[in-house]
Fold:
Amino acid sequence: MRKQQRRSRKTEVGAGIVEFAAAIILIVPLFILIVYITYEASLYMYLKTGVDAAARTQARWLAINFNYLVQRNGNTAANYASWKNSKVRVANCVTADSQITNGTIDSAGNFVTTAPPVLTTGQCLDSVGGQGVVAVRVMYPGGNAMPAWPNPPLSFFGMRLTPTSTTIAGIYVADIEP
Structure:
């Protein structure tokens, strides 16, 4: 009787160990996948929020200073692309002026890299039909000492499940101040 009880206890302990190992084998990869997805989603939200904030700040600065910059540069918007506030930065997200593109919105509602129309007296046009607005696009391309997104790209047995790098952009529009 005692011998049989010992065997049944050993069998129960052995079965418990096998069940625990099976649970670990199933749960650990799932846990790692959940941590990876949470990290990538958080990184994406940080990058998207950063480029949106930089675009909003640059567009507001450009809208406020547009008429002053036009008057200072000889009543022309030829240098419009270079009118960038060098203080618009977001840590590990927007680190260079080359990520910022000044433009405007055309009549079809698309972002174009041209300057808003300027009257001969140096004043901008009214905000009718998409004129008299500045638009700014800020892009996070990855690279240039910044990590690509997603980082690292997810692969499974040599098959890529996520792209190696995705460009994240934000566009903001502001009316030119009189």
Remarks:
- The mean pLDDT is 78.
- The CA atoms of residues 4 and 10 lie 10 Å apart.
- The first helix runs from residue 2 to 72.
- DSSP finds one helix and six strands in the chain.
